[in-house]
Amino acid sequence: MKRLIIILCLLISMHGFSQTEISKDLFPTLAGLQRTSCTKTIGEDEYGTVWGSRSYLMQEIETTTIDGKQYLLFGTNNIYDEYCSLCLREENNKILVYSAALKKDLVLYDFTLNVGDSLLRLYVDYELSSVVDYDYEEWGLAPLVVTEVSTITLLDGKEYKKWTFDNGTEYVEGIGSFGSCYAYNDFYQLIVNAPLYSDVHSQHLVCVGKNGQLLYKMDDAEMEQLETECLCDGYIDTSVETNTTPNGDTQKFIHNGQLLILRDGKTYNVMGMEITK
């Protein structure tokens, strides 16, 4: 596991990063996107089975230029989390990942697929320290085939397309891999041998946000059961203690160290300015 994390980090360190502002035109899906995932772990000690949870936030980190093209380093910059990060860019409604070994882009997500279309699986070549898409016969991997294209309404009230593949994998336009419990429930779910610690039992998508607007969140009961939390901007923990004023229509609560006021379904700061999600 440690070896693969180092491999992915070395892949990124081969290129210099710049602190330029993230362009929403170049990265319409990735810019402002945040995903909280939870890894449920299982282990043993002298007292028996031990369960645990690890939560981590994936989001944009910075940009880099490779062969004259601008890429976004997307992922987690905490090396102790499940993943390092990969260089991604967007073109023609697809999310592409750069392969250092092949010196070209590979398709990670394709938001133009129809039923019957296929998508190649990606994996990491350990010897080349790179994401690749070849040697399918050697690895026994067949391309994914789309079995259904449907729609789903997210928390912003808008409809988005959802793709289902023949192995049960799902992803949603604009937010990536989707669902409550897959073997890999990360944005890089389509990289089949994405790294997992040996004590990982399952992974869960906790919530997804875009520019501070929450798009998806698992049920509070499931979140409590998994002992996880939503780390995306725009999430308000409804379990915090509230102070209700005598008229019963206004509530005050603390979120991220800031006093906020909830009145008539809208949230305001102490200056009376409305806070939009």
Describe this protein's structure.
The structure is a single chain. With 277 residues, this protein is mostly beta strands. 8% of the residues lie in helices and 46% in strands. The strands form four sheets. Strands 1, 2, 3, 4, 5, 6, 7, 15 and 16 form a nine-stranded antiparallel sheet that branches. The protein has a five-stranded antiparallel sheet with strand order 8-11-12-13-14, with no helix packed on it. The radius of gyration is 20 Å and the shape is globular.
Give a short overview.
With 277 residues, the protein is mostly beta strands. It has helices at residues 2-13, 136-139, 220-226, and strands spanning 17-18, 33-45, 48-66, 69-75, 85-91, 94-99, 104-110, 118-119, 123-125, 130-132, 144-153, 159-165, 170-172, 176-177, 200-210, 213-217, 243-244, 250-255, 258-263, 266-269, 274-275. The radius of gyration is 20 Å and the shape is globular.
The helix-and-strand class reads mainly beta
Query: pLDDT below 50 for ≥5 consecutive residues: which ranges?
Result: 1-20, 240-248
Give the biggest beta sheet: 9 strands, antiparallel
- What is the count of DSSP helices, taking H or I runs of 4+ residues? 3
Radius of gyration over C-alpha positions, nearest whole angstrom:
20 Å
Could you tell me the mean pLDDT? 76
What is the overall shape?
globular
Number of strands: 21
What share of residues is helical?
A: under 10%
